């Protein structure tokens, strides 16, 4: 009888103290583990994610550079419970996951994308960036995958699917291609290109963490799912290379990542700003946490947090991936003791707790194992391992480069005709948000012709993030003007800024 058990007794002993072996594990065609081990790893993934998110919570977007090692990050008793009680929105990267887990639980592995889109677009939780842009699109009748396509979603390169793809890796142990399969339609609901790749890479790392204790192997093997021509792949490959060059100094790697990849192209908030929510650079910080953390739970979430930017979501992903590798039983008690107080409490906007999602993901993993030619026995499971396959090449904003961001801050009626020279434009706006049913209707004229009528609901969960966006215009001079069809004095519209794109960077000359 052929049985391959990946986790040795020696390795399990190391896992129990919160670190992992650096020894490369051979690559068998199948792996057999006990059901108890499978559940332990699934629990470790969810627990690691929740702990990492909480640890980085106080630092989120407070640091556009890295956070100096002398700045303390505290971990007091009742820390997670405090966030559950006072700031439950911190766990957006978890309750978004739970939306998808819940649909799979109710409708099975073949649940249609329409079910995910409905659950996502009608949920009560607040959303931002690519998620909210996609929710708005779906509410306006633009369904997946068009809801996440870059020409319909200026935030499509953002971090959103990256922070919520954990579910896919946790339901596909040892099967990165299956994880990608369950990431495809859902990931394109809100992202495209590099934004989608962030979720693909994270999900593949989760899947491989079930069957390998070698971090270098997991991060390198998972990267095979990403096309080498993509910006995302090149950045991750750089991080892996720089880690080998500077294995003891993550700050050097951070500076190199910032120099080469720290420029946001799509997100209207991130362009020429300090809030870089782009998936590429935030994925780099997940990867740095895993590599420089060297299998130590604290070091892993600490490095990912101190890299800055989205510094709650990045340690959540790194902590979740390492949590799978360590297993729940291998996460040090110091970190888990705060978790025990909330494991039976539902996350905000859901009826799902950690204890409940442990079981849901476990049930789904058993189904995926069987679907992909594995076996589920009475006490153990046999997983048919998969060699990662590269997904298709996608590139958002190709041929588009921001060349200016003009601060307007004018009432929409005072804007007149706004001129720009380029091949794309994005206008941001500000309008009071409330619970009323008011929705402004704004006609947008491009070069004298009506291009579209934007609907701008006042309800926060129905809002459009941007007033107007248009790409792939003929390179040249263009004019935009606005006409509000149903003005309301309680909901004045301020046009905040105009971002202009061209086919290449245009440095400003100085004499």
List keywords for this structure.
single chain; alpha+beta; ADP-ribosylglycohydrolase fold; Jelly Rolls; four-stranded antiparallel sheet; 11 strands; disordered N terminus
Helix-residue proportion? 40-55%
Q: Note the total helix count.
A: 18
Note poorly predicted spans: 1-22
Strand arrangement in the largest pleated sheet: 4-11-6-9
Strand content: 5-15%
CATH topology tier name of the largest domain: ADP-ribosylglycohydrolase fold
Class based on secondary structure composition and strand pairing: alpha+beta
CATH superfamily label of the largest domain: ADP-ribosylation/Crystallin J1
- Give the integer mean of the pLDDT values: 93
Shape: globular
Task: Tell me the name of the CATH class of the largest domain.
Answer: Mainly Alpha
Structural description of this entry:
The chain is an alpha+beta fold and 511 residues long. The chain has 2 domains: 9-384, ADP-ribosylglycohydrolase fold; 401-502, Sandwich (Jelly Rolls), CATH 2.60.120. The protein has helices at 9-16, 35-56, 79-86, 92-107, 113-122, 129-139, 160-164, 166-170, 176-187, 194-209, 215-222, 231-245, 250-261, 279-293, 297-306, 313-326, 333-336, 354-371, and strands spanning 30-34, 375-376, 380-384, 401-411, 418-422, 424-430, 439-446, 449-457, 468-470, 476-484, 494-502. Strand 7 (439-446) and strand 8 form a beta hairpin.
């Amino acid at each position: 009888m052929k049985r391959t058990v990946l986790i040795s007794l020696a390795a399990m002993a190391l896992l129990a103290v919160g670190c992992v072996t650096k020894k490369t594990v051979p690559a068998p065609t199948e792996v057999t583990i006990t059901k108890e081990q499978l559940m332990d790893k699934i629990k470790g993934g969810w627990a690691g994610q929740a702990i990492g998110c909480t640890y980085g919570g106080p630092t989120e977007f407070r640091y556009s550079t890295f956070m100096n090692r002398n700045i303390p990050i505290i971990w007091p008793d009742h820390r997670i419970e405090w966030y559950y009680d006072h700031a439950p929105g911190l766990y957006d990267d978890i309750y978004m996951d739970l939306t998808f887990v819940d649909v799979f639980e109710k409708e099975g592995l073949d649940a249609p994308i329409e079910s995910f889109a409905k659950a996502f677009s009608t949920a009560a939780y607040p959303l931002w960036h690519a998620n909210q842009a996609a929710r708005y699109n779906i509410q306006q009748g633009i369904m997946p995958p068009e809801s996440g396509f870059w020409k319909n979603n200026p935030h499509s390169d953002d971090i959103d699917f990256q922070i919520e793809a954990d579910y896919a890796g946790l339901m596909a142990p040892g099967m990165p291609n299956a994880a990608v399969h369950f990431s495809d339609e859902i990931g394109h609901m809100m992202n495209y290109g590099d934004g989608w790749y962030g979720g693909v890479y994270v999900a593949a790392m989760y899947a491989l963490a079930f069957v390998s204790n070698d971090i270098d192997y997991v991060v390198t093997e998972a990267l095979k799912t990403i096309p080498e021509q993509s910006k995302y792949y090149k950045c991750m490959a750089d991080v892996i290379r720089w880690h080998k060059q500077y294995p003891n100094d993550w700050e050097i790697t951070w500076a190199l990542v910032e120099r080469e990849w720290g420029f946001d192209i799509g997100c209207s908030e991130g362009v020429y700003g300090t809030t870089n929510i782009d998936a590429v650079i935030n994925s780099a910080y997940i990867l740095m946490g895993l590599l420089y953390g060297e299998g130590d739970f604290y070091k892993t979430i600490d490095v990912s947090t101190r890299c800055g930017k989205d510094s709650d979501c990045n340690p959540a992903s790194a902590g979740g991936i390492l949590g799978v590798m360590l297993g729940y039983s291998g996460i040090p008690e110091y970190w888990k003791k705060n978790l025990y107080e909330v494991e039976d409490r539902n996350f905000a906007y859901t009826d799902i707790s950690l204890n409940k999602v442990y079981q849901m993901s476990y049930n789904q993993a058993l189904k995926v194992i069987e679907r992909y030619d594995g076996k589920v026995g009475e006490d153990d499971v046999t997983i048919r391992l998969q060699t990662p396959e590269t997904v298709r090449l996608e590139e958002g904003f190709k041929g588009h480069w921001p060349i200016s961001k003009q601060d307007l801050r004018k009432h929409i009626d005072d804007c007149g005709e706004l001129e720009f020279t380029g091949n794309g434009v994005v206008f941001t706006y500000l309008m009071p948000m409330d619970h009323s049913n008011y929705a402004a209707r704004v006609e947008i004229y491009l070069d004298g012709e009506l291009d579209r009528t934007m609907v701008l609901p006042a309800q926060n969960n129905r809002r459009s993030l941007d007033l107007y966006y248009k790409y792939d215009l003929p390179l040249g001079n263009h004019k935009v003007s606005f006409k509000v069809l149903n003005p309301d004095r309680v909901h004045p519209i301020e046009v905040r800024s105009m971002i202009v794109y061209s086919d290449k960077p245009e440095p400003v000359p100085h004499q």
